[in-house]
Amino acid sequence: MRLSLTEHPEAAEATGPNRVVHELDDGRALVWALGDEAPAGALLSAPVALDDATEWLMRCDRVDFEPGGVAPRHRHRGGGIRCLLRGRLEVTVADGAPRVVRPGECWFESGREPVLAVAAPDDETSFIRFSVLPAVIRGQSSIQYVDAADAGRGKPRRYTVLVDESISL
User: Which pLDDT tens digit goes with each residue over 104-119?
Assistant: First the structure.
């Protein structure tokens, strides 16, 4: 299976099976889709391994960081594509070099490698993410901190779940 992100000029025309549509302030839509192939013009597409014996859900949520907010090294219970809406975010995946992500840019997280995210110190930062997660965690956080002590520390970020729906493979 492939998880893909495309941009569509109108949200109302972008619906379909195993898709999540998020309308932007200007009326355009970001469309995440799970399918056998990447759609033409995909902003980003990545393979995801999904066990047919597991029930899965598609989650779309928004993460808002305060200026200088940090998401300590963590993983998620499944893979997903993120797209920065505003601000700046420095993202480090596994032992790779930090990458500065700007509005409109996307990145993929498999859920297996640890990720560190640091928001711009001078601006609020927000991104929207779409993840494919085990259905047993519906309504629960998917985050797993590398250092368990980070789970109890303050979180200068907010999460807003927009979609948490079952999918069929």
Answer: 999 999 999 999 999 9
